[in-house]
Amino acid sequence: MKTLDEEKSGVGIEDINPDEIKKELLSRYPTKVARKRAKQIVVNKVGEDGEVPEILANTRTTPGIITQRGCTYAGCKGVIMGPTNDIVNITHGPIGCGFYSWLTRRNQTRAEKENFIPYCFSTDMQDEEIIFGGEKKLRQAIQEAYDLFKPKAISIFATCPVGLIGDDIHAVAREMKEKLGINVFGFSCEGYKGVSQSAGHHIANNGIFMHVVGLDDTVKEGDYKINLLGEYNIGGDSFEIERIFGQCGITLLSTFSGNSGYDQFANAHTADLNLVMCHRSINYLADMMEKKFGIPWIKINFISAEGTAKSLRKIARYFDDPKLIDRVEEVIAREMPEVEKVGAEVRERCEGKLAMLFVGASRSHHYQLLFNEIGMQTISAGYEFAHRDDYEGREVLPDIKVEADSRNIEELEVEHDPERYRPRKNAEEIKKLKGQGITFSDYKGIMFEMRNQVLVIDDISHYETEKLIEIYKPDIFCAGIKEKYAIQKSGLPLKQLHSYDYGGPYAGFKGAINFYREIDRMVNSRIWSYIKAPWQESPELTAKYAWK
Ligand code: CFM
Q1: Which residue has the least CA distance to atom 6 on ligand 1?
Q2: Distance between CA 380 and CA 393 in Å, rounded?
Q3: Which of 244, 433, 204 is nearest to 252 (CA)?
Q4: Ligand 1: which residue has its CA nearest to atom 10?
Q5: How far is the CA of 128 from the centre of ligand 1 (A)?
Q6: Rounded Cα distance, 229 and 238, in Å
Q7: Ligand 1, from 369, 498, 500, 506: best to mutate by most atoms within 8 Å of Cβ?
Q8: Is residue 232 within 6 Å of ligand 1 at its C-beta?
Q9: CA–CA separation, 234 and 511 (whole Å)
Q10: Which of 9, 51, 194, 422 is most buried by its number of CB atoms within 10 A?
């Protein structure tokens, strides 16, 4: 029997010319498509001054290409608002859209009282509503949900047909808010609104900011008050992060939106610092909260043990209190030995193995750090729907061309709140913190942290995926459920980084340990080499099933 290493050719980054591969990937496309894809497939090159190449992103997928992307409604309802536990989220549309937003994302919660996450609320539009309008049915659905559950708030999500027939969900929301005396608000997040789910993030950020954030001015007890933005508690990640904050004595007011609810959002503006975990999905809210209430934001990352330690130190430095600084160091010192022990053990078996990561946005970046911790390299990565700033860093923001598809999404005009705007740090303090290496309102992007010569690919197609696997023969491919079985059939393990398969948490210290062990099992298992499609072992089957 061959050893595992003999079965795999073990191609290294050094052995392959990425420009040649790019040429090969493009060679199958019609000229016009190839020209566009050429700008979305980039060979990474980080200059000495940190400069990175330009990439084309957040642009329409060419019809006919099998993309990984989802729709605007998925980004708004599924991603940002879905994890909230005590808001009744009603999908206004045909039942199919509702079904696919029903607990398929593994966002967990520990709701104290109400938990509506396991429910799927839909107006179940039929032909009649499509032809004569669905506002009446929406009104009835809101009333029914209210009568049954008496929630604090109800939100409405528009699906494609709602926009096409012109139902005014916002007028219905206003009317029902008045009638029921609870907060009712709508999101015009029709699936077609943008080029991907990214548009839905922006719409959700606007809605939650306009309708909920700032409604409750109560100043809560606790030191070092923060919000965690862009963490959705997939597989229990938020629970692990909350555990760490608890140990450090950091007060978490609100998470947008993992393990969080209406009251937390309403009160979030009383925090002293916003932490941004997933930049893509929530940067709008961070910027708006800073403008309106004066809360600064910093980019942090709790994926990877190093990232977690670094982020905690950043928070401690921001609050500039020796008590917190010491406590954070104690927590890191207590947690790290176990992480390092498991890491070293796993590293022996994983060192030098290759990973590819193609997930929505942030995770393709953050998980590279976890792989690095066990000695694995990322040979190619990219985002489904992120924007140029997530690749190249926020300094390119002024250069990003706003196209018609993005112009569709409202940019809110935000000003200082006349009474409640309060800068959390004065100019001198900010200067001091910057001197200590803290950067505010900034994200450097994925390319900056990737090796030269690796392929960075935006909105990867299924054809490109198969080609890359054939050429690079990576040890693991990270993507989602749509890719999972197709890729596994090629004899390669696929780790779902959206839902985590059935695993997690992977955030924080304990999460890092879980991830190391899981990847060790996956890349060092022989099981994939035993899988052979019937026609690989019995070629005559090909003939039997052929047309003629
Ligand atoms: Fe942010 Fe996410 Fe992601 Fe995302 Fe998503 Fe997700 Fe994702 Mo799936 S908010 S961008 S829209 S980190 S659902 S929790 S895993 S594609 S990489």
Answers
A1: 498
A2: 18
A3: 244
A4: 361
A5: 35
A6: 11
A7: 498
A8: yes
A9: 12
A10: 194
Catalytic residue at 71?
yes
The DSSP element (H or E) to which 187 belongs, if any, is strand 183-187
The residue nearest atom 8 of ligand 1, judged by CA position, is 498
Q: In whole angstroms, give the CA distance from residue 460 to residue 360.
A: 11
Residue 278 Cβ contacting ligand 1 at under 6 Å? yes
Angle subtended at Cα 189 by Cα 185 and Cα 194, rounded to the nearest 5 degrees: 155
**Spatial distance between the Cα atoms of 529 and 471, rounded to a whole number of angstroms:** 17
Distance CA 129, CA 132 (A): 5
Kindly tell me if the per-residue pLDDT of 100 is higher than 80.
no
Beta strand extents in 372-521 (DSSP E only)? 377-383, 455-457, 476-479, 494-496
174 C-alpha vs ligand 1 centroid, how far in Å? 31
Q: Is the pTM of this model over 0.85?
A: yes
Structure tokens given for 82: 């879905």
CA–centroid distance, 280 to ligand 1, in Å, is 9
**Residue 521 pairs with which residues in a beta bridge?**
none
Q: What is the chain's Cα-based Rg?
A: 24
Annotation marks residue 105 as catalytic: yes
- Our answer to whether residue 74 is catalytic in this structure is yes
- 238 C-alpha to ligand 1 centroid (Å): 14
Residue found by looking up tokens 């604090």 in the block: 152
Q: Residue 85 — φ and ψ, nearest 5°? A: -90, -30
Catalytic annotation, pick one of 37, 92, 106, 201: 201
Per mean pLDDT, which range of 31-45, 108-122, 368-382, 452-466 is the poorest? 108-122
Query: What length is written for the chain?
Result: 548
For 308-327, the pLDDT digits (tens) are 999 999 999 999 999 999 99
Distance between Cα 191 and ligand 1 center (Å): 17
pLDDT digits (tens, 9 = 90+) for 185-233: 999 999 999 999 999 999 999 999 999 999 999 999 999 999 999 999 9
359 lines ligand 1 (CB under 6 A): yes
| CA-197 nearest atom, ligand 1 | 11
Mean pLDDT of the 298-305 span: 98
What average pLDDT is seen over the chain?
94
What tens digit of pLDDT does each residue of 403-459 get? 888 888 999 999 999 999 999 999 999 999 999 999 999 999 999 999 999 999 999
Residue nearest to atom 14 of ligand 1 (CA): 232
* Confidence bin at 542 (pLDDT 50/70/90): low
